[in-house]
């Protein structure tokens, strides 16, 4: 039993099921991020936790209490919306204390909570302004402040940063993380931005098409994705997925893939149970940072494979240079050091960290787990 | 070269501008002419009108026609002036406008923020009511008013105007509230506000501009209505019916100056509503656009 339990929850609109038997257990103080492409049902799930949408079947309980049928205001949750949903006719101060007022909290206590939170968020000088007179970042803070004064069991965030410009988004991200580390309140946070998910969360639920594809820590999600969807959705640039054929030679398992000229190349894999796939096709997943110039390779890796191949494109990006080559008939991106001697059209010796490579079943697209 | 072009651009700008102003001025004069005729003639003794030029200013200025129209002129058979009918109209128009506007606001609120099965059909039917001609409902309406005992009374007229107006006011508020994000209502629900509290504290304070539109529309329609007033007014007829009785009276000489004064009196309230509320209307629109 967790602090927030979502058990076997489904949601249908008419006869269209948009969420299918979702199970998540959130411990007290956790920062759970629901991430997935637009339309995958993240907001729907969050709204069901908030009580803004009915649950079609299944149960949600918060702090040991089943909340089906409990009014949103009585679930002891607070929510921050993408549009901030600040009441335009009220001042910032009134916005933040409206919930307390509706809950019958006496005025002195409201003032105290307002003073504490506005100090915490450094918005004391804004309290008498109307939302219309605030910048985007300030509105965002006020929206968070309105949630904070309630001192809820669970914070619910629905894409709270997606209306901010890139720079502010990064700043506010750090700020939210700091706040969570300070307050240790349970958070469920919805985003379609995988970087936000990886940086903020203690655990991530990757969703697609109304299913939870994988639930795990950011490291688990990133290093051992459950399937090709998770592998390519999380991480930027996306994980390279290359068709390869398994060849076992003297007990050593190789993945054979074709280079830019169509010549077969062998990469030794670390995953011994792939021997069962001898002679068959798999999909090999290699993150761009596992494909480097030899000097930039991870020195701790025990399985660095060398591969000569022709470079198609180089994209200097300041701190790194991204290099594209053709492998297995697909474009594959590697991340070189900025001063690596890579030029388009030339042959180049790549170092591939096979410790970090993962294998997928081409039929089911699920990961082939090591034993 | 570039300087020369700029010069021409500025001078053409000036010429166009002058032309536009000239045309606008002509239009304004054209529209003001009838008002001028009415005001001028309402301030003349009758013999100046019958004797001569309608377009001339009065030679002897008098407010007698106004006083007569207000309190002594013959309306039908009684020499009461328009005053009692003016009061009837006020007693009818204020509650009718207030009730239909409030109902429209609540309807709009429900139809956008508390959606239910069949809400669009219901709204469609209410919209349909905007297109029903008055004449069609006269007889059924008379039956209903008779049955509920409101025939020939001001409350009866109020009811008729509310029923007729609520389709329009619902349309206004529904479209206005449709643009208000539903997340506001959701946030207020989580904050613990109930149905009426959300309406009163969140939606209504945002409704200035649309309320002005609704009030102007309803006031003008109810005040200017003749058919319902004549059909259902009974002994409490509104201003429009009285004005007709004043102007159409077949006995004695036609006192055109009194008629003009009476007509202006009948038009004055709507004029005032336009002038006063119209200003707030523009202000409300500006505030909304700045708020974003
Ligand atoms: N009121 C509704 N009626 C019908 N379908 C809906 C409704 N709300 C959401 N959906 C559908 O449910 C799915 C999930 O929506 P949502 O939870 O908003 O996605 P996300 O937040 O992940 O972008 C979408 O396919 C959407 O079209
Ligand atoms: Mg969403």
TrEMBL record, chain A:
One of its GO terms (biological process) is carbohydrate transport. The keyword Nucleotide-binding applies. One of its GO terms (molecular function) is ATP binding. Keywords: ATP-binding, Nucleotide-binding, Transport. CDD domains: ABC_MalK_N. The keyword Transmembrane does not apply. Signal peptide: none annotated. Residues 4-234 form the ABC transporter domain. One of its GO terms (cellular component) is ATP-binding cassette (ABC) transporter complex, substrate-binding subunit-containing. Pfam families: ABC_tran, OB_MalK. Belongs to the ABC transporter superfamily. NCBIfam families: PRK11650.1 (NF008653). This is Carbohydrate ABC transporter ATP-binding protein (CUT1 family).
TrEMBL record, chain B:
GO terms for cellular component: plasma membrane. It is a multi-pass membrane protein. Gene3D superfamilies: MetI-like (1.10.3720.10). It comes from the Bacteria. Residues 86-277 form the ABC transmembrane type-1 domain. Its main location: membrane. The keyword Transmembrane helix applies. It is found in: Cell membrane. GO terms for biological process: transmembrane transport. The chain crosses the membrane at residues 18-40, 85-110, 122-142, 148-173, 194-217, 260-282. Keywords: Membrane, Transmembrane, Transmembrane helix, Transport. The keyword rRNA processing does not apply. SUPFAM superfamilies: MetI-like (SSF161098). Signal peptide: none annotated. Belongs to the binding-protein-dependent transport system permease family. This is Carbohydrate ABC transporter membrane protein 2 (CUT1 family). It comes from Shimia abyssi.
């Amino acid at each position: 039993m967790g602090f927030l339990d979502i058990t076997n929850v489904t949601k249908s609109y008419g006869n269209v099921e948009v969420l299918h038997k979702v199970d998540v257990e959130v411990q007290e103080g956790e920062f759970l991020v629901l991430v997935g492409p637009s339309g995958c049902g993240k907001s729907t799930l969050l709204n069901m936790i908030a009580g803004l949408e009915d649950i079609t079947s299944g149960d949600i309980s918060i702090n040991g209490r089943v909340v089906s049928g409990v009014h949103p205001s009585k679930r002891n949750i607070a929510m921050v919306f993408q549009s901030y949903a600040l009441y335009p006719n009220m001042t910032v101060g009134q916005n933040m204390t409206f919930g307390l007022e509706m809950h019958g909290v006496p005025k002195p206590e409201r003032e105290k909570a307002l003073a504490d939170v506005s100090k915490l968020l450094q918005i004391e000088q804004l309290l008498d302004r109307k939302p219309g007179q605030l910048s985007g970042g300030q509105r965002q803070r006020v929206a968070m402040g309105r949630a904070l004064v309630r001192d809820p069991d669970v914070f619910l965030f629905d894409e709270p940063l997606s209306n901010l410009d890139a720079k502010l988004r990064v700043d506010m991200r750090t700020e939210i993380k700091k706040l969570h580390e300070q307050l240790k309140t349970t958070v469920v946070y919805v985003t379609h931005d995988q970087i936000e998910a990886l940086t903020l969360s203690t655990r991530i639920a990757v969703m697609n098409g109304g299913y939870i594809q994988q639930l795990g820590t950011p490291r688990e999600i990133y290093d051992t994705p459950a399937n090709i969807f998770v592998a390519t959705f999380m991480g930027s640039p996306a994980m390279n997925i290359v068709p390869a054929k398994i060849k076992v030679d003297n007990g050593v398992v190789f993945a054979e893939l074709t280079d830019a000229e169509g010549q077969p190349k062998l990469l030794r894999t670390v995953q011994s149970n792939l021997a069962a796939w001898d002679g068959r096709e798999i999909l090999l997943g290699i993150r761009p940072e596992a494909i480097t110039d030899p000097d930039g390779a991870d020195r701790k890796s025990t399985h660095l494979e060398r591969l000569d191949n022709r470079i198609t494109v180089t994209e200097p990006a300041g701190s790194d240079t991204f290099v594209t080559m053709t492998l297995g008939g697909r474009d594959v991106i590697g991340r070189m050091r900025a001063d690596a001697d890579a030029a388009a059209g030339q042959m180049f010796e790549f170092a591939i960290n096979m410790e970090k490579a993962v294998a997928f079943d081409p039929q089911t697209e699920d990961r082939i787990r090591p034993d | 070269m570039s300087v020369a072009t700029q010069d021409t651009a500025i001078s053409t700008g000036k010429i166009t501008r002058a032309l536009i102003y000239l045309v606008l001025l002509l239009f304004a004069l054209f529209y003001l002419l009838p008002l001028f005729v009415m005001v001028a003639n309402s301030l003349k003794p009758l013999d100046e009108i019958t004797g001569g030029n309608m377009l001339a200013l009065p030679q002897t200025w008098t407010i007698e026609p106004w006083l007569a129209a207000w309190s002594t002129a013959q309306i039908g058979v009684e020499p009461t002036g328009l005053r009692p009918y003016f009061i009837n109209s006020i007693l009818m128009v204020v509650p009718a406008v207030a009730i239909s506007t409030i109902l429209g606001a609540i309807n709009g609120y429900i139809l956008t923020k508390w959606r239910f099965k069949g809400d669009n059909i219901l709204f469609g039917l209410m919209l349909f009511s905007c297109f029903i001609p008055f004449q069609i409902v006269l007889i059924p309406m008379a039956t209903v008013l008779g049955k509920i005992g409101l025939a020939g009374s001001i409350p009866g007229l109020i009811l008729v105007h509310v029923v007729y107006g609520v389709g329009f006011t619902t349309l206004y508020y529904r479209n206005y509230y449709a643009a208000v994000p539903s997340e506001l209502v959701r946030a207020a629900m989580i904050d613990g506000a109930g149905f009426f509290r959300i309406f009163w504290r969140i939606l209504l304070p945002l409704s200035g501009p649309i309320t002005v539109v609704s009030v102007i529309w309803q006031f003008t329609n109810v005040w200017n209505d003749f058919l319902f007033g004549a059909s259902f007014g009974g002994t409490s007829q509104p201003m429009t019916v009285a004005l007709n009785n004043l102007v159409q009276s077949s006995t004695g000489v036609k006192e055109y100056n009194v008629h003009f004064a009476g007509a202006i009196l009948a038009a004055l309230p709507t004029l005032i509503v336009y002038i006063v509320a119209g200003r707030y209307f523009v202000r409300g629109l500006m505030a909304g656009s700045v708020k974003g």
